[in-house]
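User: Sequence recovery, please. Input:
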């Protein structure tokens, strides 16, 4: 999630655990702990693929954070002023303020390496977008009440309860969306195909499903307010014929570990050379995928891994195009007609089949 949300979550958890004993101090310490795991973003790994796939790694590990929280609790108890509070309470304070950060991150699309250093793919069960005001606002309001009144517990407690209730709502909505998808997937014989279901930007009323089928990937939008309108399925190519070439490099293998099958491959002309580029289809929205990485260049009739991978700029869309896309998303949330077609925002070379309604 975004930094503001993580600060608010850490402060709220801190207030709930020790707000009665520490007052406003519990909020300030909790806020610092809540943002601590994201300091790994300051580490320069010297390579774009390494930087994006190592983020939310060791600093988000439940093992590491539980150990750090335990150490902080033991050290705090050595302070004379802290001995009036039981060790168990300090342990809950530090550990919960720290581990709630990666647990919330795991509910977004990007995923989190909760079990580092075990060689497991990032954990992700997206039910909220990386920025969702309806989750963050209750936390901020609860903290404002606590700062004004000096009661560090009640305001954050109510804020955390409302934010958690919103997550329960989002979880139930995702289950409903998956149920709505089943007839569409069955119609196209895609029941067993890898799929990713996630909310569209800033809301949990309109959801996007990405389904991988060999060289094709399909996009489907499902809205909570769609009524009986059947979801539309649009089909794109993802350049799967280039996948073996990408997997010849360590960076390509790392991206495949990170994103699974949700990658698109293409050859772009960069600096006078044909360059193999992989785009993460999970993040962003069709036509606005921000994570694309160089993997290899074609020189002297041979493909060679790049010495240093670069993250390419977002697709060449004007700010006006982005505003138009967001405006159409808002309209699509309210009603399914006229249909919002994701292919409206995608370069024609990728579109294989537009829905008839488009």
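Assistant: Recovered sequence (358 residues):
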């Amino acid at each position: 999630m975004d930094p503001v949300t993580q600060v608010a979550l850490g402060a709220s958890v801190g207030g709930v655990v020790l707000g009665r004993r520490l007052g406003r101090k519990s909020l300030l310490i909790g806020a610092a702990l809540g943002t601590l795991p994201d300091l790994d973003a300051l580490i320069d790994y010297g390579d774009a693929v390494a930087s994006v796939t190592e983020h939310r790694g060791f600093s988000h590990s439940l093992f590491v954070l539980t150990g750090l929280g335990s150490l902080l609790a033991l050290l705090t108890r050595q302070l004379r002023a802290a001995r009036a509070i039981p060790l168990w309470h300090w342990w809950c304070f530090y550990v919960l303020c720290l581990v709630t950060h990666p647990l919330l991150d795991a509910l977004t699309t990007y995923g989190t390496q909760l079990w580092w250093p075990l060689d497991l793919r990032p954990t992700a069960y997206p039910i909220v977008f990386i920025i969702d005001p309806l989750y963050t606002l209750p936390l901020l309001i609860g903290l404002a009440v606590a700062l004004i009144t000096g009661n560090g517990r009640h305001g954050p407690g109510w804020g955390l309860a409302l934010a958690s209730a919103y997550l329960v709502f989002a979880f139930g909505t995702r289950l409903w969306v998956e149920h709505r998808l089943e007839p569409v997937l069955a119609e196209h014989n895609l029941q067993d195909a890898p799929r990713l279901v996630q909310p569209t930007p800033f809301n949990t009323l309109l959801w996007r499903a990405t389904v991988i089928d060999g060289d094709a990937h399909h996009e489907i939008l499902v809205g909570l307010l769609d009524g009986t309108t059947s979801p539309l399925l649009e089909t794109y190519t993802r350049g799967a014929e280039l996948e073996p070439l990408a997997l010849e490099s360590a960076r390509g293998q790392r991206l495949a570990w990170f994103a699974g099958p949700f990658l698109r491959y293409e050859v772009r002309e960069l600096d006078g050379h044909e360059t193999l580029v992989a785009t993460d289809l999970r993040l962003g929205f069709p036509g606005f995928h921000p994570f694309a990485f160089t993997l290899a260049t074609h020189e002297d009739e041979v493909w060679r891994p790049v010495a240093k991978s670069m993250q390419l700029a977002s697709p060449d869309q004007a700010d006006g195009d982005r505003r138009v896309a967001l405006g159409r998303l808002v309209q699509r949330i309210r009603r399914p007609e006229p249909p919002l077609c994701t292919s409206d925002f995608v370069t024609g070379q990728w579109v294989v089949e537009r829905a008839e309604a488009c």
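The first helix runs from residue 3 to 22.
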